[in-house]
Amino acid sequence: MTSQPSLLSRVENGIAWVTLNRTEQRNALNIPTLKALIDVLDGHEADPAVRVLVLTGNGKGFCAGADVAEWADAERRGILETYGWTETAHQLMNCLHGFSKPTIAAINGIAVGAGMDLTLCCDFRLAAQSARFKAGYTSMAYSPDAGASWHLPRLIGLEQSKRLLFLDEIWSADRALATGLVSEVCADEALIAQTMELATRLASGPTFAFAQTKVLIRDGARRSLAEQLAAEQAAGLLCGRSQDGVEALRAAVEKRTPHFIGQ
């Protein structure tokens, strides 16, 4: 296990488990934690042994968002607008959203502000029954600054997004499930097991094809259908030429389960 003061990371059976570990601060994101997450993601992106990434939090909460104490200190020193939190957070959100391998947020407890935004950057969101979601911006007289205004309308629609952002309500796990903010809710004690089951299924799959699919979905919104079909054809050629593509065809002919290696 590789550990840092605010972060834990380990890789087991192709699954990278990244755990926020500032329990006394409810895993709030200060600049050192943001930078540590970026470094860990970059390392796992480059590591062929990593086929799936899981992001979760230690303690009773997933992530309380920005570290308000760090913000208050920056304001006292007159550097709130220039000390770099927002720029670093944006780098992290882009890194997680663009991660080529499947990503899962295992959401335990509260996810507020940038903590909620971290979950929105992941491909899958599994919530414990005790999970709670809060945008956290307008009650502090701020507008969203870590991607919520981009992700939420795509996930839950315009009106629900405005309700969550304008009224700054606290949403339960069940409400998050009903609106499409998460894909699954489970008992608190089952969260890790349920996450492990999904991560294991993904890790055994054709992760090269997953990566191509992620890019197609991400970029498709700004293309016409004709442009998207051309992109699908190009991606399909890459998949067909991959080792996994060859293995899938051979396994189909031989009537056996394919063994994918992610290449």
Automatic annotation (TrEMBL):
SUPFAM superfamilies: ClpP/crotonase. The keyword ATP-binding does not apply. It holds the Pfam family ECH_1. It comes from the Bacteria. The keyword Mitochondrion does not apply. Keywords: Lyase. Gene3D superfamilies: 2-enoyl-CoA Hydratase, Chain A, domain 1, Lyase 2-enoyl-coa Hydratase, Chain A, domain 2. InterPro entries: ClpP/crotonase-like_dom_sf (IPR029045), Enoyl-CoA_hyd/isom_CS (IPR018376), Enoyl-CoA_hydra/iso (IPR001753), Enoyl-CoA_hydra_C (IPR014748). CDD domains: crotonase-like (cd06558). Signal peptide: none annotated. Belongs to the enoyl-CoA hydratase/isomerase family. This is Enoyl-CoA hydratase/isomerase family protein.
